[in-house]
Amino acid sequence: MRSLPSLTALRVFETAGKSLSFTLAAKQLHVTQGAVSRQVKQLESFLGVPLFVRLHHKMELTDAGFQLLTKLERSFDMMEEAVLDIREPNQRQKLNIFVSPTYATRDLAPRLADFQNRFPELELSIQDQVSQHTLFDCIIRFGLAEKPRFYSELLRLEQHVAVCTPELVLRSQSLEKESNNLLHILHEGKRLGVWADWLQAAGLREQISPHRGMEFSTMDQVINAVKTGAGFAVIDKYMITKELEKGTLVQFSNVEVSGPYGYWLDILSEKQGLSKVAHFVGWLKGS
């Protein structure tokens, strides 16, 4: 037998914890404020700790209350998904995905029509910023290694190539004179080491400093800058397939560097068994 308080008390607490108001919780649950207060008191009595700090004009969660609310939200989400999977398999379900910005724009978005055609019952929510209010089903992130506490799988390593516009190809042959025109990508506040790695592979590390030039917060910004002739960039070639095919960007050297950065798929263990997650992962790896 599980030692649990009533499900009603837990549900009432979750609603009150989100709104930090017994009055608003009562309206959402269609009960009286007194009923909400009684359920919360019963739950606090069962746990032996206070869940709210009651101030003059507002309430705040205690540390215990915040911890319980966080875990309850995840648990109720899982319960809802489990019920929907069985009771209404054809009902549209929302799949929340966190995707790094450039991957979302240049890799994932062009293929989404195929996913929607195959799984019309799934409604995608694709975001590139972490929110405390969203529990993501899948995460596609840019990084170096697997993530602790997640099922992590490397989707692919980046393949870095040096590119510029056709008009700058001649200048690229004297790249040692173009240090100020190197375009860099920032990651977690620091420049990625892709230029240093490429220059080392090309045998140019002694002649050219990878520490000069302009920096941008995303790869997409670098791609747009290099397309306008702002300078030279080392970019994952999979992200500029169309530009290379059309000739708006050209690879001015045959040197290519694999990794060490790549795109990783992360899934919380409790999300792995959900059918909507399985559908997305199967499509992502097979498309």
From TrEMBL:
Transcription regulation among keywords: yes
UniProt KW Nucleus keyword: no
Species in which this protein is naturally found: Colwellia psychrerythraea
Regions that span the bilayer: none
Superkingdom, natural source: Bacteria
GO molecular function (one): sequence-specific DNA binding
Residue ranges of every copy of the HTH lysR-type domain listed in the record: 5-62
Keywords: DNA-binding, Transcription, Transcription regulation
Protein name per the record: Transcriptional regulator, LysR family
Family: Belongs to the LysR transcriptional regulatory family.
Swiss-Prot/TrEMBL GO biological process terms: DNA-templated transcription
Record Pfam families: HTH_1, LysR_substrate
Database matches in InterPro entries: LysR-type_TF_proteobact-type, LysR_HTH_N, LysR_subst-bd, WH-like_DNA-bd_sf, WH_DNA-bd_sf
